[in-house]
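WARN no homologs supplied; continuing
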Amino acid sequence: MLGVIINLLYPALCRACSKKINEFDRNICADCAKKIKERLPPFCLRCGRQFKGESELKAICADCKDETPYFDQAWSACHYEGALKSLIHDFKYKKITALSKDFADLIINFMKKYDIGKDSRIILSVPMHPGRLFRREVNHADILARAIGKDLGISYSGNALKKIKDTPPQSKLKREARMKNLRSSFSLKNSRIFRGKDILLVDDLFTTGSTVNECSRLLKDSGAGRIDVITLARGDNA
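OK structure emitted
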């Protein structure tokens, strides 16, 4: 009832098209939500890259055959394009944290559809270096991981994985340079808690996968079990 009253006094507006929304806890209208494209199989069985072909196709991409990633499987819920691309930009750089509810729901629905992370005991987010977090004020991956963990009943260890080296932005580097850039840039606060545990690692975007792969390397070296990576979006239209 309180939400209804608030929405009457201060109508919620879609962050993508500015149209009025009747649901006070939503930030994307139904019409814009329909334009957000869910990624559909077939996917690479390791990095989650989307293939062309029948959905039943089971295959591993050339990159993963050449160099097997440390994580067991990565998934991305949506295509990084159109309205979603702009909304993610607002979420990350304009601190529109209210979008986390809509984004977390997109990820959770995708996870349930494909039984992702059902055996995960711990959920982690890709961390930011303290200096960058101070400048940004918000770690978007942390917000998503908390919401996903709460909904799925997975224990969230927010401070266990840390970024200890303030590396240059990955977006400005090529694939090999990205991997070198991240070497020894993360640390674990207490590695023993991950021993034998299946882990769900959360980030907003999957580009080359070098960031989540370096985090996964550290976790595997600490004795972690299966590592599933889930991100909101990826820009690999098949």
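Confidence is low (pLDDT under 50) at residues 2-9.
OK
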